[in-house]
């Protein structure tokens, strides 16, 4: 049976120039390189320059993805940006990127699922493509979490960073089997009963302020591995594929301990795990496309490889995307 598949044409990423190391942070709050590395695997994170916004980061990643795909923005018909740190309350940050790409046709909108944002945006793009509503979609994850951190709270400020990543998806015909290139299945979940475990204590309708990120880290940790395994296992059950069939596991980059425990629980060979958290910390919606782009650029991910993406974060939200590159 012929089906429409969303095939990755290219990917790209961008990290701001300034790197903030664990030792730099130890000058600011009561922490140490040893504690941060041992508990999280993070060694440094990048911080946007003064005046550099989420749309600046997203635009740079988008350009890199378009170059990698070898296409021009004029051939896109949709841009979906995942972010929890928009330039402004409105308009959507995606329209700024659309404008900078010289595009005045098609549509652009933001999706907001915090750390799961990229997986939500990929799923949305796949649904548009499958429904025949779009043929070429630019999916971006971009964040400036440095702007919503409480820099006096050592339990959160050491964990997050700024960055952006993007992929271009194109509608192509497949045979309807798991050998097809493109997205094979997507699984999304949320449960608002956990919203106070990871949230920002401000917003336009509640406090009329931007607010700061607040997190019960241990609580998030406790739920993360189970939730990730749930959506990854669902993707395996639906497709009949297993952990052994995977070529690469590209998880949300929040904490190396969560990544390692999830891979172990799912029976995924550690050699297949792409981990970049040490270089940029938790960049929320940007983390999966940052890891994906690094593994593609250094030659690990090749055409035909089976790749599992997953993420979990504020809401809680969580999800997985299984695709053949
Ligand atoms: O994308 C989803 C977003 N979030 C996450 O994925 C985060 C999930 N949670 C985590 O990654 C971990 O829970 C953390 C890395 C946040 C914390 O690690 P933990 O092993 O759960 O540590 P803990 O919260 O149980 O804290 C252990 C100790 C505490 O001291 P006491 O109470 O034992 O005296 C903390 O006060 O470590 C202390 N601590 C720190 N020490 C040095 C907390 N933060 C720091 C710090 N430096 N930065």
If strands are numbered along the chain, what order do they take across the biggest sheet?
A: 1-7-6-4-5
* % residues in beta strands: 25-35%
Report mean pLDDT, rounded to a whole number.
98
CATH superfamily of the largest domain: Thiolase/Chalcone synthase
Helix content: 25-40%
Number of helices: 10
Broad structural category: alpha/beta
What does this protein structure show overall?
With 325 residues, the protein is α/β, with parallel strands linked by helices. The chain folds into 2 domains: 3-174, 3-Layer(aba) Sandwich (Peroxisomal Thiolase, Chain A, domain 1); 182-324, Thiolase/Chalcone synthase (Peroxisomal Thiolase, Chain A, domain 1, 3-Layer(aba) Sandwich), CATH 3.40.47.10. It is 32% helix and 27% strand. It is built from 10 helices and 13 strands. It has helices at 22-26, 33-40, 54-69, 93-100, 117-130, 154-157, 217-239, 256-266, 277-280, 287-297, and strands spanning 3-14, 18-21, 44-47, 78-82, 107-111, 136-144, 162-174, 182-190, 198-200, 213-215, 248-251, 306-313, 317-324. Helix 3 (54-69) crosses helix 4 (93-100) and helix 7 (217-239) runs parallel beside helix 8. It is globular and about 60 Å long. The relative contact order is 0.20. The model has no long low-confidence stretch (mean pLDDT 98). The site of oxa(dethia)-CoA has 20 residues, from helix 2, helix 6 and helix 7.
């Amino acid at each position: 049976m012929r089906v429409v598949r969303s095939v990755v044409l290219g990917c790209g990423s961008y990290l701001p120039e300034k790197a903030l190391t664990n030792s730099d942070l130890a000058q600011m709050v009561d922490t140490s390189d040893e504690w941060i590395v041992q508990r999280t695997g993070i060694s440094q994170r990048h911080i946007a320059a003064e005046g550099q916004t989420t749309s600046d980061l997203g635009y740079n990643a988008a350009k890199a993805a378009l170059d990698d795909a070898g296409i021009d923005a004029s051939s896109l018909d949709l841009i979906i940006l995942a972010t929890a740190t928009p330039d402004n309350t409105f308009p959507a940050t995606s329209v700024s990127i659309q404008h900078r790409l010289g595009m005045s046709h098609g549509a652009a909108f933001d999706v907001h699922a915090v750390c799961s944002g990229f997986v939500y945006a990929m799923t949305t793009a796949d649904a548009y493509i499958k429904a025949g509503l779009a043929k070429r979609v630019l999916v971006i994850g971009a964040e400036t979490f440095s702007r919503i951190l409480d820099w006096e709270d050592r339990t959160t400020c050491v964990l997050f960073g700024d960055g952006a990543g993007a992929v271009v998806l194109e509608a192509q015909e497949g045979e309807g089997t798991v050998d097809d290139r493109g997205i094979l299945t997507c699984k999304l979940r949320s449960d608002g009963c956990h919203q106070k475990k990871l949230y920002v204590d401000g917003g336009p309708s509640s406090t009329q302020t931007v607010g700061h990120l607040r997190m019960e880290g241990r609580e998030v940790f406790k739920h993360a591995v189970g939730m990730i395994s749930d959506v990854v296992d669902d993707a395996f059950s639906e497709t009949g594929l297993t952990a052994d069939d995977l070529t690469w596991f590209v998880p949300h980059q929040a904490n190396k301990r969560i990544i390692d425990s999830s891979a172990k629980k799912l029976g995924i060979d550690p050699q297949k795990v792409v981990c970049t958290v040490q270089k940029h910390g938790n960049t929320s919606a940007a983390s999966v496309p940052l890891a994906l782009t690094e593994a593609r650029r250094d030659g690990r991910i090749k055409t035909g490889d089976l790749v599992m993406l997953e993420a979990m974060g504020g809401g809680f939200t969580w999800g997985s995307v299984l695709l053949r590159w």
